[in-house]
């Protein structure tokens, strides 16, 4: 036990070997390179942010621009640009199918894109306001025509009916049926309504007709009188 403990202590007291010194040197060099890379990355980010801040400021001050599209950039650069845009009060979106083709678009708040415009960018299409308005108008017209056609199909057809059936709710179903039965009975038995029996002739016309009938009847009863009167005229 004492020999083992002594050997451990003696090995610890020995100076490091050449191999250990080389490993430590490489570790220090690697740490120095890593620190340098981090500092370089930090410097690049700061320079890129400063560049984007100036670019965004120019975009805001240009009253002729409503939106701005950037070339595809890496994830870190996109993140910096989104942050700069948010601080500046702009709306920003990233578009693109894959990582290599993704790009950023900035929009001023008063010209924020509609859902339809965003969908066009996501499909990789260019946005045309005039064409979009025309497509919207055609869709609305088609919807109105479809609604009108649907209402026409649902509207029940008016059944053919006579006058009494059509206005039975006004004159009463029972009264209409009674009038119909009376009319049919009169037709069957030859009955004439009182209104049809009313004499519309004037009194003078009636008297002339009565006198004519009397003269005709008297002539039939006394044929000789008619002949003698006729001979006298000759």
TrEMBL record:
Pfam families: R3H. Gene3D superfamilies: R3H-like domain. PROSITE patterns: R3H. SMART domains: R3H (SM00393). Residues 1-49, 125-169, 209-234 are annotated as: Disordered. Residues 46-109 form the R3H domain. Residues 21-49, 125-156 have a biased composition (Basic and acidic residues). This is Sperm-associated antigen 7 homolog. GO terms for molecular function: nucleic acid binding. It comes from Electrophorus electricus.
């Amino acid at each position: 036990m004492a020999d083992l403990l002594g050997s451990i202590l003696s090995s610890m007291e020995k100076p490091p070997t050449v191999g250990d010194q080389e490993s430590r040197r490489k570790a220090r060099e690697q740490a120095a390179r890593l620190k340098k890379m981090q500092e370089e990355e930090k410097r690049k980010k700061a320079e890129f942010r400063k560049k984007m801040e100036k670019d965004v400021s120019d975009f805001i001050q240009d009253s002729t621009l409503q939106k701005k599209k950037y070339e595809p950039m890496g994830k870190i650069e996109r993140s910096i640009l989104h942050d700069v845009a948010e601080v500046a009060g702009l709306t920003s979106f990233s578009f693109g199918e894959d990582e290599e083709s993704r790009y950023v678009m900035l929009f001023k708040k008063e010209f924020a894109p509609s859902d339809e415009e965003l969908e066009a960018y996501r499909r990789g299409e260019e946005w045309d306001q005039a064409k979009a308005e025309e497509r919207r108008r055609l869709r609305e017209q088609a919807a109105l025509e479809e609604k009108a056609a649907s209402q026409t199909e649902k509207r029940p057809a008016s059944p053919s009916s006579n006058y009494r059936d059509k206005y039975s709710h006004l004159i009463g179903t029972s009264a209409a049926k009674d009038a119909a039965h009376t009319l049919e009975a009169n037709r069957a038995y030859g009955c004439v309504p009182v209104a049809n029996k009313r004499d519309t002739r004037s009194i003078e016309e009636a008297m002339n007709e009565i006198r004519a009938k009397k003269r005709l009847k008297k002539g039939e009863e006394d044929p000789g009188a008619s002949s003698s009167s006729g001979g006298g005229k000759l």
